[in-house]
Amino acid sequence: MTIRLADAAATEEFGRRLAAHLRPGDVVTLTGTLGAGKTSLARGLLAALGLPGEAPSPSFAIVQPYAPPETAIPILHVDLYRLDGPEQMEELGLDEALWDSALIVEWPDRAGEGAWPQALALTIAMDPGGGRILTAQVPSGWENRWPI
After folding, report:
1. Cα separation of 33 and 99, whole Å?
2. In this predicted model, what pLDDT tens digit does every residue of 51-78 receive, in sequence order?
């Protein structure tokens, strides 16, 4: 499925709509080039879940946790851009976090092939005419929640 997002505000709004369908145990992966809108989408999602203020990019922290009462459900916003390789994934403890948290993962390719086969995989690309184009690969666990 492909969705056209006119601008950064539309990208954040899509994240807000996505938040209404997110639950603990979910993984949403965000793939795209630098500046494509991955963090904007995540910020919209986190704002809709109640996060006050603007969410920082987790680029340097790698994992930015959020939990009630700050957000409606526990969320780990993950940015794997700075990982040297998939072997560093185990140190992050992300699989254990899925028991009670949702993961929003930027740069999922750094985790290695097949890291989250159950993920809602979103790819954001620059539209030559302006805006962004979002493509979704919807796994079976999301079929009754999609489209949003």
Report:
1. 30
2. 988 887 777 788 999 999 999 999 999 9
